[in-house]
Design a protein that fits this description.
Order of helices and strands: EEEEEHEEHEEEHEHHEEEHHEEHEHEHH
Strand order of the largest sheet: 3-2-1-6-11
Oligomer: single chain
Radius of gyration: 23 Å
Number of helices: 11
Structural class: alpha+beta
């Protein structure tokens, strides 16, 4: 394996933070995390770039920290895609088996996948993923790989993920401006599942809920495949804003209070604890409030969040299929009481999804808030393929995720 192919890099450009994970692919195929970097995100809102220069500086800071820790230079990375612009749906393709002996070839599989993705999408959107769910051969379903089997009619059920072309290109441009070649863009729920879900959970049926800063992402897996995805514009920042308004305190102080004293379930709070000093706006004297007051603000938001997702799961028709329950990831999943609220709303077992698919994890990279970045590195290692041909520019769409350090240096010099 070439030296440049020994390392896999995941870059999670989120609303509240930007994470970079560098993993070394060992001879046994396992990924060993050797570098981790994190920086506050300054230029995104709800997963969409709103300030290019600020985002570029944040990406540079996170990448440089990871490079320093790993002792290697990052030239390319896999970038996570999320945000309210993501849309997905299921599709089906049907073709006739071309061989005279009716044996399904790899070309037949490719043709049926092309037929499944031949759908009309609105202008200004592009297809990010075409994810196979199952193949059907002569009405025999639940086939993982039909190549070599005998039949006359081949069908494929797939899950298609689309995104706004401009939103995707702006994210790619940020990485390019930071000197990073974008090898691929991956749906964050798909990446996160690589880090936190087990094969048994994927087979039985599980919902992965990633509670980020600006949005919360949902992915439903069953029979080893992804069947439904959704994004809601509610996240950890909404908990913070609720506290800022309810306590009449600045947002930075509300964020600090949420992390230090927050709880989303009233039954977990003891009033016997010492009162909390809450800063006020306008230079007024701080006030003393009980823990219960904060919980009364946070719990309704948690109830709303999981009620929205329960309704989404019911609407999609998967409410009876989540035999393995729910797995929560993302920074806001660390808020005490969130897991219990989810259990009450869904009436299903819920666990916190901590990354476990990579080796060498040490704090602070081992928490659920970094599951996406680690999952991106794992996804790249699992699906890596040699790069060939002339690289395209970011302006050419999904196939041209390339910037490179030379381009970044030239843009800074001129």
């Amino acid at each position: 394996m070439a030296k440049t192919e020994r390392y896999t890099v995941g870059l999670d450009i989120g609303t509240t933070k930007i994470c970079c994970v560098i993993g070394e692919i060992r001879d046994d195929g396992k990924v060993h995390v050797v570098g981790f970097g994190q920086a506050p995100s300054r230029g995104l809102r709800k997963g969409v770039v709103v300030n290019l220069d600020a985002t570029v500086e944040s990406v540079k800071a996170a990448v440089e920290e990871a490079e320093l820790m790993a002792g290697v230079s990052v030239e390319s990375a896999t970038v996570g895609i999320a945000g309210g612009h993501i849309r997905s749906f299921n599709s089906r393709g049907v073709v006739a088996v071309s061989n005279r002996d009716r044996t399904v070839s790899r070309d037949d599989v490719k043709r049926v996948m092309d037929a499944a993705r031949a759908v009309s999408i609105p202008q200004g959107r592009e297809i990010l993923h075409v994810l196979p769910q199952e193949y059907v051969l002569d009405d025999q379903g639940a086939i993982d790989d039909p190549a070599g089997l005998v039949g006359s009619k081949l069908e494929a059920n797939v899950h298609i993920v689309t995104g706004s072309t401009t939103s995707v290109q702006n994210l790619v441009t940020c990485a390019n401006r930071a000197g990073i070649e974008v090898r691929d863009t991956v749906l964050e729920q798909l990446a996160g599942s690589e880090a936190v879900l087990s094969e048994d959970e994927r087979e039985l049926g599980v919902a992965l809920i990633d509670i980020g800063g600006g949005t919360t992402d949902l992915a439903i897996f069953e029979r080893g495949s992804i069947w439904h995805t959704a994004v809601l514009p509610v996240g950890g920042d909404h908990f913070t804003n609720d506290l800022a308004v309810g306590l009449r305190t600045p947002i930075p102080d509300a964020e600090r209070l949420k992390k230090k004293h927050g709880c989303a379930l009233a039954s977990l709070v003891e009033d016997a604890g010492a009162p909390i000093e809450v800063p006020t706006v306008g230079g007024r004297k701080p006030r003393l409030l009980s823990h219960q007051v904060m919980t009364e603000i946070l719990q309704p938001r948690a109830n709303e969040l999981f009620t929205l997702f329960r309704d989404e799961v019911v609407r999609a028709g998967f409410d009876k299929m989540l035999n393995a329950g729910l797995v929560l990831t993302g920074g806001a999943s660390l808020l005490p009481g969130v897991t219990q609220v989810a259990e009450q709303i869904f009436e299903l077992p819920v666990r916190l999804g901590e990354p476990r698919g990579a080796e060498g994890l040490v704090d602070p990279a081992a928490g659920p808030q970094h599951a996406t970045a680690i999952g991106l590195a794992l996804y790249t290692a699992k699906n890596r393929r040699p790069r060939a041909g002339v690289p395209l520019t970011a302006q050419t769409g999904a196939l041209g995720r390339v910037g490179g350090r030379v381009k970044a240096w030239l843009s800074e010099m001129f």
